[in-house]
């Protein structure tokens, strides 16, 4: 067990300078890192960048078009923004994470930047087409959260990047579903989150999104596009055909998760068939 | 490294290694044995503390991260009137436990009332999940929380009237 050098930058400029060092660990809430380690001493890399005290990462603000949340805002602080500001899908995802005491430590940025697996906020943010600002020595990039998924469906958060802000578009959704499957207290291989949103205008399905993520993520914009523009309610034949498409998409999941995903998709489509 | 912070109202400093958990530092450097470092995964609630006024499991907080912050343990909280309200409220509601997780339940209840002075039964049960207990009926926990709220409201009301 080796001691690490811990850096406490005062601002983003200083943090990005320190971030150049190879192999450095970015530390904010630390819940994902520390809950994995059951031993007495912690195992951390040689250098740690503690970003908790950077004011730019701790802000949240609401405009007419989007909600912007700093990456080091805790899940509790995010929930305290209230129902008027926070999309219910994201609020429900955050409420399903750990205990209230764990949510006082865990940050939104940490929930998105996890590399081992997708954490609970990811499917909600993916469904809401949220953007994450990633910064590194080269500058700043706004990236759709969906693009943090690799070709194999596994998390693909870029190495050497610091997530600084998350921008969630403010949109009207007529129905939403958020369900967590598998063990609840801490993500296990069989834990995953299902998120669904849909909006209709004059009886026509105007937008619909479905995301599912655990160790790998599923989202098909092709299947979503095939639903958009259909008249509501969906016929049972239409719903069965769409559900079949999603079952095929879930072929890469372990059998138990694939079955649960299939049932959740059917339940969501049922909401569009009434 | 030297970590300086406020502990139970006093400025303190301690030598900590980057590998140290806060729960271990508090027990070993400061002799605060009211918290325990049992699960080391933030699940059992026996290491709950207030960190900058927020309830957190100190076993998943690295000691280095409390630099410049304020920590209150059960020993510090036990000096407050809020503690007495909770302890008496538990007694009034007949919540008797095996003693294994008393401190955890008191800290979890304090954390709840800090954020929600009149919590609903659902809020109570959700929040008390931070201190899971196998020997207390959830209904009794709800009654205890309500007794604490009553007791605290009376105390504050009496003080306002003085």
Can you walk through the features of this model?
The complex is a heterodimer of chains A (274) and B (162). Chain A is of the alpha+beta class and 274 residues long. Chain A has helices spanning 12-18, 31-35, 75-79, 88-95, 100-103, 108-113, 121-127, 221-227, 236-249, 255-271; strands spanning 5-7, 25-27, 47-50, 60-62, 66-70, 131-136, 139-144, 162-169, 175-181, 192-201, 204-213, 217-218. Chain A has a 5-stranded antiparallel β-sheet with strand order 4-5-8-6-7. In chain A, β10 (192-201) and β11 (204-213) form a beta hairpin. In chain A, α4 (88-95) packs antiparallel against α7. Chain A is globular. The relative contact order of chain A is 0.11. Chain B has 162 residues and is an alpha+beta fold. Chain B has 2 domains: 2-77, Beta-grasp domain (Ubiquitin-like (UB roll)), CATH 3.10.20.30; 81-161, Orthogonal Bundle (DNA polymerase, domain 1). Chain B contains 6 helices and 5 strands, in the order ββαβββααααα. In chain B, strands 2-1-5-3-4 form a 5-stranded mixed β-sheet, sandwiched between helices. In chain B, a hairpin with a 2-residue loop joins β3 and β4 (54-57). The longest helix of chain B is centred in the C-terminal third of the chain and has 24 residues, at 138-161. The relative contact order of chain B is 0.14. The mean pLDDT of chain B is 91. Classes of the chains: A alpha+beta (274), B alpha+beta (162). Chain A binds chain B through residues 1-6, 8, 27, 30-31, 34-35, 37-44, 48, 50, 52-53, 74, 76, 98-102, 104-105, 185-186, and chain B through 1, 17-21, 24, 37, 39-43, 45, 48, 51, 54-57, 59-62, 64-65, 67-68, 108, 111-112, 126-127, 129-130.
The number of strands of chain B is: 5
Write down the domain tally of chain B: 2
Instruction: Name the structural class of chain B.
Output: alpha+beta
* Global shape of chain B: globular
- Supply Rg of chain B: 16 Å
């Amino acid at each position: 067990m080796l001691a690490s050098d811990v850096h406490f930058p005062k601002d983003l400029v200083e943090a990005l300078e320190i971030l150049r060092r190879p192999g450095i660990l970015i530390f904010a809430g630390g819940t994902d890192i520390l809950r994995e380690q059951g031993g007495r001493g912690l195992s951390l890399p040689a250098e740690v960048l503690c970003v908790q005290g950077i004011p730019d990462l701790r802000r949240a603000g609401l405009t007419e078009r989007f909600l912007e949340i700093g990456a080091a805002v805790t899940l509790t602080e995010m929930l305290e923004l209230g129902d008027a500001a926070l999309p219910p899908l994201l609020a429900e995802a955050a409420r399903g994470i750990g205990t209230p005491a764990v949510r006082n430590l865990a940050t939104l940025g940490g929930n998105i930047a996890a590399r081992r697996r997708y954490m609970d906020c990811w499917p909600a943010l993916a469904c809401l087409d949220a953007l994450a600002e990633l910064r590194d020595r080269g500058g700043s990039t706004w990236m759709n959260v969906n693009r943090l998924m690799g070709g194999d469906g596994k998390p693909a958060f870029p190495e050497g990047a610091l997530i600084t802000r998350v921008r969630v578009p403010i949109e009207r959704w007529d129905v939403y579903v958020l369900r967590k499957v598998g063990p609840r207290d801490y993500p296990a291989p069989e834990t995953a989150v299902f998120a669904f949103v849909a909006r209709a205008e004059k009886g026509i399905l105007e937008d619909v999104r479905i995301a599912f993520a655990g160790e790998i993520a599923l989202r098909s914009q092709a299947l979503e596009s095939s639903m958009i523009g259909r008249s509501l309610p969906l016929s049972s034949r239409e719903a069965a055909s769409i559900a079949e498409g999603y079952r095929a998409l879930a072929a890469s999941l372990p059998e138990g998760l694939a079955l649960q995903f299939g049932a959740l998709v059917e339940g969501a489509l049922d909401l569009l068939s009434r | 490294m030297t970590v300086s912070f406020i502990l139970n109202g006093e400025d303190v400093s301690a030598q900590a290694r980057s590998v140290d958990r806060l729960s271990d530092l508090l027990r070993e450097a400061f002799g605060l044995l009211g918290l325990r470092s049992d699960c080391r995964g933030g699940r059992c609630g026996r290491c709950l503390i207030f960190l900058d006024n927020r309830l957190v499991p100190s076993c998943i907080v690295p000691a280095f991260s409390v630099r410049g912050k304020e920590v209150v343990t059960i020993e510090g909280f036990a000096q407050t009137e809020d503690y007495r309200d909770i302890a008496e409220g538990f007694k009034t509601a007949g919540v008797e436990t095996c003693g294994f997780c008393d401190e955890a339940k008191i800290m979890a209840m304090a954390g709840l009332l800090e954020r929600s002075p009149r919590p609903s039964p659902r809020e109570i049960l959700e929040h008390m999940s931070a201190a899971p207990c196998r020997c207390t009926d959830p209904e009794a926990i709800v009654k205890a929380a309500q007794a604490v709220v009553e007791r605290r409201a009376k105390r504050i009301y009496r003080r306002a009237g003085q």
